[in-house]
Amino acid sequence: MAVGPYLRFVLLLCVIGLAMFAIGYLPTRKMIGPKAVSAILTGGGLSFFASMIGSVPVALMSAQGAQAGSTGALTSMLLRLFLVLGGSLGIAIVAPAHLNAILIWVGLSYLGFLFADVFFALSGIDQHQGAA
Q: What's the whole-model pTM score?
């Protein structure tokens, strides 16, 4: 497993997450009031967690060649999707207050972190394309 690229990926997730928080705090506060921070952290945290866990197959399989890297990328995207869907269902059951704002943040942060996920997956595949 390549630890350096994975840590850079996590750092990129943190930067994207902080940027989304900075941009979206005021509109979310207008929408739901003082509970805005908890909605942002819940929705964004779920997507952040799913991106971190979902990228593990890419980190593990990319060292085994381009074909394994491609399989890792597809596995990563499916794992991430299922983690977000399951987490969203859990949030809907446990904490139905401000569910609209939380789910909006799940969707926005999913799309924001998708950029980093695709970049990380493609970098794992591309490192073997030149050798093949």
A: 0.86
